Structure formats: structure tokens, C-alpha cells
Amino acid sequence: MPHPVPETDKRRAAEAEAEADGTEDPASAREGFREPEATFAAVFRQALRRRGLPLERIRDHLRAQQISVSLATLSHWQRGRSQPEKAQSLRAVDALEPLLDLPTGALRSLLGPHRPRGGARPPDPAAARGVFGEDSDVEQALGDAFAHFNAGLRALTVQETVCLDEHRAIRETSVTTVVQAVRDGVDHLGVVHFLDSPKSGTAALDVPGRPAPRIRFLEEMGCVAADIPLGRRLARTETAVIAYTLRAEGETSWQHERRVTVPLRAYLLHVRFDPRAVPAHCWGYRRERIGADPSHRHRTPLDDFHTTHLMPTRCVPGVYGIEWCWPD
């Protein structure tokens, strides 16, 4: 005896068949011709049904005009899963209006603002917590400001050089970063650095060619925070280069690492040791988040100038660093 097909499966089958031939699903068709709101997807879908044109016909019409749009993309457009944004997609919209007997601009006028992509995407606090962990030291240091920390900027590249002194302690960290504004009006970059048992009153942050910004030293957390002026207010998508050097006296160091919360185009970590205090071995590593075991760990050799470096070929979110061991 055949088993009855659940209503959910029937509906999914109907939707799949509708998507294949470019028509609307039966439930939507019963609601009548006019959609409750005039969105790009709704008007495009109505025009397809009115003209009786399958998506294959639309694709072939565009191809004849040297405009390449896949069936999957056309299906996403009519269902509101995506909208035309790139130059070729907008050309396709212009070419579709006469084919669908729509007035010039009828579809174009319904396209909303472009969604942020790549460098224009603002940082996500949830993504930062995925790397830092819940209630991390950074979040404790920033408090309520954590959710908005550098929310107007996205880092593109980071280069840092860490210098150790003869006492095996990190004495100086120099950073050069390129950032891009994800909204108008951003005028400063926030930085937070955690040091190895820093001595109170020894931390100083210098920005070449600019007045030294005021720093906040949280001794109980061994943390230095500062807001570095960009020199002007950036418009959205504009970039800025910020270089600064942090100096502090601390105790013996065993590693240096950076937490990356968004993909970087490039990251370089360069570690320079004092000739009077050279480690026995160094290893570069990456881990998914703070507290996780390294997923990629490899030896990084020292050169004749007592330096080593790490430069990942792909810098996806995670924790990157170099650790070393001192001779007995």
C-alpha cells in the first residue's frame, strides 16, 4: 500500500518544479496577480508570468545581446534571494524591461542600495567573539565599547615588527596598518595591546609626525588602549595608513600573536631578537580562536640578523603568532 506524501513534501516539489520553469509556486499564484508590495522580485515575477516566459528564454535573450546571466541567478532574482548589483547584471535589467513590456526604469527603480561587499563590510562583534571568545580580555578592557570598537573601519593589511631586548622581553612593537572606512565620518583607529607583565608608567605610544595620543593603561590586565587620529574624516570606502610604535618595559616573553577578526589581504609578523638574547627555536602558528590548540604550526628559522617572520598566504580570521623557547 503506498504511503501518503506529506503536504510539506508536496509543497517543496511544487516549488522545485516552479523554479525550474521560471514560474511562481502554486500558493503564490492563488494569491492573485498583484503582490502586496512592489519589490524588484515581485514585479519581475509578475512580468514573467504575464508574458509566459520561462527563465531559459530570458537567459537566451540576454545571451544574444552578449549579456551572460545564469539560470540560477535569474531564479534568485525572481524569488528575492539576491538582486542585480554588478554592471553586467544592471545591463541585463535594462535589456529585460522591453522584453517584459515594462516601462523604461520600471525594474531599475526598484533596486535598493548595494549591499556592502568586501572592504565595505563593517566588522561584526559576533565574529570578533568567535576569535576572542566570550567575555574575552579585550571585551573586559573595552566594556560596552566592545560592540562598537572600530565599527567604522575594516583592516586591509597589517605589518608589525616586534623587538626584544637583552633581558628577553618585548621592548618595542611597531605596527603599520591600512584600513578602509565602511561608513562616512570615521576619524580615528582604536588599538588594544596586551603586554607581558608591563611595568607601570613605562608604556608609551608614538605616532610618527603626529602628537602622541593619550593612552589608557589597565595595569591589572597588562593592557594598553588608545585612539589614534587618522588626520581627517574618511568617506565610505576611503583608505588610510596608520603607523605607530608602542614601547614598554616588561618581563620575559615567550610569544607574540595577533587576533584577526576579518580576512586580511596581507599580514606580516616580524620578530627581531637582541644579539645578546637569541632563542633556541621559533615556531609560527595559527589557531582558530583564543584557547584553541594550534592547527598549523611550523618552524620559522632565524636569519643571520637574529630575526624571523610569519606571513600566511591566506589570512582568514583566527589567531596568528610566533612562539620561541630560550636556551637553558
Task: Give a concise summary.
23% of the residues lie in helices and 30% in strands. The protein is built from eight helices and 13 strands.
Count of DSSP strands: 13
| SS content category | alpha+beta
Percent of residues in beta strands: 25-35%
**Helix-strand string:** HHHHHHHHEEEEEEEEEEEEE
The major sheet is characterized as: 6 strands, mixed
Please give the count of helices. 8
What is the terminal separation in angstroms? 79 Å
**Whole-number average pLDDT?**
82
Described by the principal axes of the CA atoms, the overall outline is elongated
Radius of gyration: 28 Å
Strand order of the largest sheet: 4-7-2-1-9-12
| Uncertain regions spanning at least 5 consecutive residues | 1-36, 115-120
Q: Give the fraction of residues assigned to helices.
A: 10-25%
Description:
The chain contains 8 helices and 13 strands. With 328 residues, the chain is of the alpha+beta class. 22% of the residues are buried.
Features:
single chain, 328 residues, alpha+beta, 4-stranded antiparallel β-sheet, 23% helix
Write the layout of secondary structure elements.
Elements: H1 7-21, H2 26-29, H3 40-51, H4 55-64, H5 71-79, H6 87-99, H7 125-132, H8 137-142, E1 153-164, E2 170-181, E3 186-194, E4 204-206, E5 215-218, E6 223-234, E7 239-247, E8 255-260, E9 266-272, E10 281-287, E11 296-299, E12 307-310, E13 318-325
Parallel strand pairs: 1-9
Antiparallel strand pairs: 1-2, 2-7, 3-6, 4-7, 5-6, 8-13, 9-12, 10-11, 10-13
